[in-house]
Design goal:
By secondary structure, this protein is of the alpha+beta class. It folds into two domains: 137 residues, MutM-like, N-terminal (N-terminal domain of MutM-like DNA repair proteins), CATH 3.20.190.10; 112 residues, Helicase, Ruva Protein, domain 3, CATH 1.10.8.50. It is 23% helix and 21% strand. The chain contains six helices and ten strands. It has a four-stranded antiparallel β-sheet with strand order 1-6-7-5. A hairpin with a 5-residue loop joins strand 6 and strand 7. Helix 3 packs across helix 6 and helix 5 crosses helix 6. The longest helix is centred in the last third of the chain and has 20 residues. It is globular. The two termini are 39 Å apart.
Length: 291
């Protein structure tokens, strides 16, 4: 799943090419892309017909377009875009042939480029949600602030992290604690901090946690400058361009390669339904307590 840098790259593309435009109509193919909209795809397309898209917004790994109300007393709504594993939002001239796995087409009233939602694996989709007074969709109210939010408080986040007894990597991935960090950037931040992901969060000092969160912000900022991390064509910007941060990864996916810091071969370990990559020397596994 795209993480904060990749979603932010897409958000910026939507802000440049889509925000401020008014929809003429929306075409949605099949029901799966709108499965999170209970009334179904036809209703979602109707809700969006003639809608003015105000802004492209993001919190953590979650992306939405704000829609101005058409009735005087109607609340603002947001069109949430779940990219899933392979969802792409592409800005395409109308004459561009339909992409394979095209599931939704947004046609604007200015005859400019269309917005298309393409998803090979169909894990992604579109959802419709009222907005809270702070502009965040109600359905995303459980998502914590991310390290780039102006209201983010690293000390408060560190206190929340330290309350958890789970392994520190599991806590970093908990979007209710801090949002935007996924498997890639958790591995990178843990490597920079010299901490193994199975270390109990409660066993780390608050300064150590703050440093780790700082590394997470730094590595995601560096990835953002490179357009994000692309391993294949499934993640691209709205113009189809790939990111290049995969060339600078120190830990994630580097199994069997020398640690950039000490030269020890990097190891890969099972983690939940994924994996973790770390340095055996720089990031020693925590010792199991004696029974």
């Amino acid at each position: 799943m795209p993480e904060l840098p990749e979603v932010e790259v897409v958000r910026r593309g939507l802000a440049d090419h889509v925000a401020g435009r008014t929809l003429d109509h929306v075409e949605i193919s099949g029901s799966r892309v709108a499965r999170r909209h209970v009334p179904g795809p036809a209703d979602l397309a109707h809700q969006l017909e003639g809608a003015h898209l105000d802004r492209a917004c993001r919190r953590g790994k979650y992306l939405w377009l704000t829609v101005a109300p058409r009735a005087a007393q109607a609340p603002d709504h947001g069109l949430i875009v779940h990219l899933g594993m392979s969802g792409r939002m592409l800005v395409s001239p109308a004459e561009t042939p339909d992409q394979t796995h095209l599931h939704a087409r947004f046609v604007f009233d200015d005859a400019g480029p269309e917005l298309r939602f393409v998803d090979q694996r169909t894990f992604g989709g579109l959802a419709w949600s009222p907005l809270r007074p702070d502009g965040v969709p109600e359905s995303l109210s459980h998502v914590a602030l991310d390290p780039f939010d102006p209201a983010y408080d690293v000390r408060a986040t560190a206190r929340e992290v330290k309350r958890r007894s789970s392994g520190i990597k599991r806590v970093l991935l908990d979007q209710r604690v801090v949002s935007g960090i996924g498997n890639i950037y958790a591995d990178e931040a843990l490597w920079r901090a010299g901490i193994h992901g199975e270390r109990p969060a409660s066993g780390l000092t608050k300064p150590a946690i703050e440093r780790l969160l700082g590394h997470a912000r730094d590595v995601m900022g560096e990835a953002l400058e490179q357009g994000g991390t692309s391993f294949d064509a499934l993640y691209v910007n709205v113009n189809g361009a790939s990111g290049y941060f995969d060339r600078r990864l120190a830990a994630y996916g580097q199994e069997g390669r020398p640690c950039p810091r000490c030269g020890t071969l990097m190891r890969r370990e099972q983690f939940m339904n994924r994996s973790s990559t770390s340095c055996p020397r720089c990031q020693p596994r925590p010792r199991r307590p004696r029974s």
